């Protein structure tokens, strides 16, 4: 599926204004989508329809809250799409593990390192840290932290 | 009369022979184990482009003795929840029957402790103790891996005994007797291996399976089950399992030599050489053992169900067919 | 699901723990299996025994200081991880790399790929019970390690790439010993094929074992030889050419069914293709500087970036969020073994325990990169 078609598929789920093109040579992404937590499942279904695979789910901690980053890509033509979901503190996200099995472990890792809960995840337990750990290491209030910024500082113009 | 002559008179000739023979057998088993461990390590090393033990003694010959001393000096740890009686009995039970089997092996015309007229049957009867001892060891260890290894070993041993005995029957059809010396005598014209090669091959394959050697070594497969049924054994107990395996290899090769390769008889055209029968016997036995070691370090391992399939679907029909065909041939010859 | 088995007469399942200390799980991996006799009902890989917190370390270290960390994540393909990291930061900061440095990086990365595959080959056959090929492979691998040791200073965890090039230049001895090595390894393929590939026992252990088809690979995000064995010719060196891979002529070997035998053949053929790349690179190696002048503390512009390379095990990616200072704000390494390992939860149920070793070996994971 070409990039234009992919963009069309995604714009059925999310407002087209939130879909931006990016320059692949410069930063590795073709498309960037800003989504809300409740749109994530529909986005994942659209990506599966478009024959994309889930490349990774990761997260970054900002002052407003944790931002979850989904990456979709496809085998046939590189169409790496970045989906950004900015959460408030203590907000949770619906899981996409019923659509992509890869999400089972990626979401467990985000939960383990950031403390984000994924609703309806069948097996949300820690994956990298010991089961009885009571901290989430990659949050910016744990351990040695060099900088703690807001999304405006990094992504703002 | 000297003191030893008085002793021999008192015990009687038969008992003296047995005692001397048993002491000799014990010595042979120990020396054989020492030699075989060294041989295996050297052969494995050269196949793998290495050298093997070379520091301790010339060519590393004394390496095994040193390893033996180390094993003997280790603490005998008994894990807490094992079945103590069975746990301690298993290594003994696996080693003693092998010793007893040596009583009937014909090393030469005169070097046979006891020429029982059911000699071959004695050997096979005692070798089935192997199965029982492995099961004891695996069960008593209170360890899932050991149990899996022991169960697999029992299934494998019982399955491969059938084609083993069927091919042995083929050789017995020719010799008409279970007496080991008679079997060797029946090969005075031509060795059994030359006119029943399939039987010799099947026997060797089954023998490899019986002694749990690769490619049939799933019961002790290190990479899948840590160490199988002897995981929990350490020190001298492990040494006994080891000794039993190498002694078993010697017995099995000795029986193959007797049944198929002419026992202590010289090679067909070299009878004029002044080499005693026992040297021929040992040479043939060790060549067979070398082949078994060679196979071990060349091939990967069969998966357990493939191993069992191979036995039930290929070996047993082949052995049966062989028996029927050769029964017909021997009837025609006689 | 691989095999069918009879309706269980009784509920006879029991739990078996493989690892974390086990000779065949390559690294500290724990496979928690629920068995019904010899068949696996459920499999749960438990990881995290080697979690060292590389990503947290990255946030409080300079970009330059993270360089040694990158090769310690996957120590078998350390140069490729290095290469990916420095190329990612160079793209962010707009640093140009002289052509000679690019060629040197490609040569060393492909040599690293070969040494990783050789180690996989040896350990896979050893797990299946054939102890001998392991030593032959290590013999070949020693050559590569010596070659790379001469130029970078370390045998396994290299920190050879620098921003703007490489740390040291190649000398004639390197080129000569690499050419000799290429000839030597090419003469070994016959030995390996005769000893292993044509061996009936090995074929029985690997054929139709652990089938991972395209659909399964898509759902789990598997990349690398697993995906290529399923028939998808997806290789980052072709799909998103980085460095100078577009100048080389090499093929992407694929399989048909996606069983362990296909994965095995794909990796063997990949080694040959890597040899081709090294040969072409040595022929075309230009003169020039091996390192560009780069500011002392690299300061990439703000934003988030992703850079993908093809590691020995699959698609490796670095996702870096930069806040404009010389410390990364967030660095995530998307490692190929993470998705590749997870596929075991779907492939293992229905297979025999003895096949677990074969499947695990053919997937080729390195647990430290999963744990980071």
Please write out the topology.
The complex is a heterotrimer of chains A (157), B (334) and C (372).
Chain A: H1 3-11, E1 19-21, H2 24-27, E2 31-35, H3 40-49, E3 52-62, E4 65-74, E5 81-86, E6 93-94, H4 103-114, E7 118-119, H5 151-155
Parallel strand pairs in A: 2-5, 6-7
Antiparallel strand pairs in A: 1-2, 3-4, 4-5
Chain B: H1 3-11, H2 13-47, H3 63-72, H4 84-101, H5 119-127, H6 129-140, H7 144-175, H8 180-185, H9 192-195, H10 197-210, H11 222-225, H12 236-260, H13 277-296, H14 304-333
Helix pairs in contact in B: 2-12, 4-5, 4-6, 4-12, 6-7, 7-10, 7-14, 10-12, 12-13
Chain C: E1 13-18, E2 30-36, E3 39-46, H1 54-59, H2 67-73, H3 78-93, H4 99-127, H5 132-152, E4 161-162, E5 165-166, H6 172-197, H7 200-206, H8 214-220, H9 225-229, H10 236-239, H11 260-284, E6 303-311, E7 314-322, E8 328-334, H12 336-342, H13 344-347, H14 353-363, H15 367-371
Antiparallel strand pairs in C: 1-2, 2-3, 4-5, 6-7, 7-8
Helix pairs in contact in C: 2-3, 3-4, 4-5, 4-11, 4-14, 5-6, 6-11, 11-14
Q: Can you give me a brief rundown of this structure?
A:
The complex is a heterotrimer of chains A (157), B (334) and C (372). By secondary structure, chain A is α/β, with parallel strands linked by helices. Chain A has helices at 3-11, 24-27, 40-49, 103-114, 151-155, and strands at 19-21, 31-35, 52-62, 65-74, 81-86, 93-94, 118-119.
Major pleated sheet of chain B? none
Count of spatially separate domains of chain B: 2
What is the first-to-last residue Cα distance of chain B? 53 Å
Give the distance, in angstroms, between the N- and C-terminal Cα atoms of chain A: 32 Å
Low-confidence runs of at least 5 consecutive residues of chain B: none
Taken from the alpha-carbon principal axes, the silhouette of chain B is globular
H/E order of the elements of chain B? HHHHHHHHHHHHHH
Largest sheet of chain A: 5 strands, mixed
The CATH topology assignment of chain A is: Beta Polymerase, domain 2
Give the structural class of chain B: mainly alpha
Cα gyration radius of chain A (Å): 16 Å
CATH superfamily of chain A: NADH:ubiquinone oxidoreductase Nqo5 subunit
* H-E order of chain A: HEHEHEEEEHEH
Q: Which overall shape of chain A is indicated by the principal axes computed on the Cα atoms?
A: globular
């Amino acid at each position: 599926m070409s990039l234009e078609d992919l963009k069309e598929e995604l714009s059925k789920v999310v407002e087209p204004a939130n879909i931006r093109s990016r320059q692949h040579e410069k930063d590795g992404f073709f498309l960037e989508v800003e989504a809300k937590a409740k749109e994530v499942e529909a986005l994942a279904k659209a990506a599966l329809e478009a024959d994309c695979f889930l490349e990774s789910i990761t997260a970054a901690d900002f002052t407003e809250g944790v931002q979850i980053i989904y990456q979709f890509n496809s085998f046939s033509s590189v169409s790496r799409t970045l989906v950004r979901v900015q959460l408030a503190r203590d907000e949770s996200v619906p899981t996409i593990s019923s659509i992509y099995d890869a999400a089972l472990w990626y979401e467990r890792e985000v939960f383990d390192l950031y403390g984000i809960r994924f609703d309806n995840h069948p097996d949300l337990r820690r994956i990298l840290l010991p089961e009885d750990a009571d901290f989430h290491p990659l949050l910016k209030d744990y351990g040695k932290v060099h900088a703690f910024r807001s999304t405006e500082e990094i992504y703002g113009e | 009369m000297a003191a030893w002559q008085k002793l021999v008179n008192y015990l009687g000739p038969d008992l003296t022979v047995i005692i001397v023979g048993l002491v000799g057998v014990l010595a042979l088993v120990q020396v054989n184990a020492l030699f075989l461990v060294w041989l295996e390590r050297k052969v494995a090393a050269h196949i793998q482009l290495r050298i093997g033990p070379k520091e301790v003694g010339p060519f590393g010959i004394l390496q095994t003795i040193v390893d033996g001393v180390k094993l003997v000096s280790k603490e005998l740890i008994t894990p807490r929840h094992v079945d103590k009686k069975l746990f301690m009995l298993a290594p003994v039970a696996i080693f003693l029957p092998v010793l007893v089997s040596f009583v009937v092996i014909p090393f030469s015309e005169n070097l046979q402790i006891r020429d029982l007229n059911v000699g071959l049957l004695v050997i096979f009867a005692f070798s089935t103790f192997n199965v029982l001892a492995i099961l004891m060891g695996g069960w008593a260890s209170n360890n899932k891996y050991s149990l899996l290894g022991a169960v697999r070993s029992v299934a494998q041993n019982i399955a491969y005994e059938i084609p083993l005995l069927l091919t042995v029957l083929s050789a017995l059809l020719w010799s008409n007797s279970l007496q080991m010396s008679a079997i060797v005598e029946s090969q005075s014209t031509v060795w059994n291996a030359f006119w029943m090669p399939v039987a010799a091959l099947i026997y060797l394959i089954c023998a490899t399976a019986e002694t749990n050697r690769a490619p049939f070594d799933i019961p002790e497969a290190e990479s899948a089950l840590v160490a199988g049924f002897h995981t929990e054994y350490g020190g001298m107990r492990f040494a006994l399992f080891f000794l039993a395996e190498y002694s078993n290899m010697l017995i099995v090769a000795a029986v193959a030599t007797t049944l198929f390769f002419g026992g202590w008889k010289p090679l067909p055209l070299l009878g004029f050489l002044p080499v005693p029968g026992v040297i021929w016997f040992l040479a043939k036995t060790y060549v067979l053992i070398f082949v078994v070691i060679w196979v071990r370090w060349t091939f990967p391992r069969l998966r357990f169900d493939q191993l069992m399939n191979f036995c039930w679907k290929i070996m047993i029909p082949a052995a049966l067919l062989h028996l029927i065909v050769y029964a017909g041939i021997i009837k025609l010859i006689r | 699901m691989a095999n069918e088995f009879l309706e269980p007469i009784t509920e006879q399942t029991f739990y078996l723990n493989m690892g974390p200390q086990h000779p065949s799980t390559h690294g500290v991996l724990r496979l928690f299996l629920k068995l019904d006799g010899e068949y696996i009902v459920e499999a749960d890989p438990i990881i995290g025994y080697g979690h060292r917190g590389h990503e947290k370390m990255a946030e409080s270290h300079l970009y330059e200081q993270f360089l040694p960390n990158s090769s310690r994540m996957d120590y078998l393909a350390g140069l490729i991880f290095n290469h990916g990291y420095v190329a990612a930061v160079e793209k962010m900061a707009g640093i140009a790399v002289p052509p000679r440095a690019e060629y040197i990086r490609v040569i060393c990365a492909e040599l690293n790929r070969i040494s990783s595959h050789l180690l996989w080959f040896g350990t896979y056959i050893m797990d299946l019970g054939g102890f001998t090929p392991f030593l032959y492979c290590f013999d070949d691998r020693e050559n590569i390690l010596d070659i790379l040791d001469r130029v970078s200073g370390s045998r396994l965890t290299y920190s050879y790439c620098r921003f703007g090039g490489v740390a040291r230049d190649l000398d004639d001895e390197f080129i000569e010993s690499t050419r000799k090595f290429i000839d030597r390894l090419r003469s070994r393929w016959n030995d390996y094929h005769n000893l292993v590939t044509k061996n009936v026992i090995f074929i029985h252990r690997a054929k139709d074992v652990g089938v991972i088809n395209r659909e399964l690979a898509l759902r789990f995000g598997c990349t690398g030889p697993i995906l290529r064995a399923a028939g998808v010719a997806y290789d980052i060196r072709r799909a998103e050419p980085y460095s100078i891979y577009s100048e080389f002529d090499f093929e992407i070997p694929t399989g048909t069914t996606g069983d362990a035998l296909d994965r095995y053949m794909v990796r063997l053929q990949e080694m040959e293709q890597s040899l081709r790349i090294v040969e072409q690179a040595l022929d075309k190696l230009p003169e020039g500087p091996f390192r560009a002048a780069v500011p002392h503390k690299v300061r990439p512009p703000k934003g988030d970036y992703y850079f993908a390379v093809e590691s020995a095990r699959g698609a490796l990616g670095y996702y870096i969020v930069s806040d404009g200072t010389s410390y990364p704000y967030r660095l995530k390494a998307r490692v190929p073994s993470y998705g590749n390992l997870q596929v075991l939860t779907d492939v293992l149920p229905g297979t025999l325990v003895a096949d677990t070793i074969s499947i695990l070996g053919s997937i080729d994971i390195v647990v430290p990169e999963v744990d980071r």
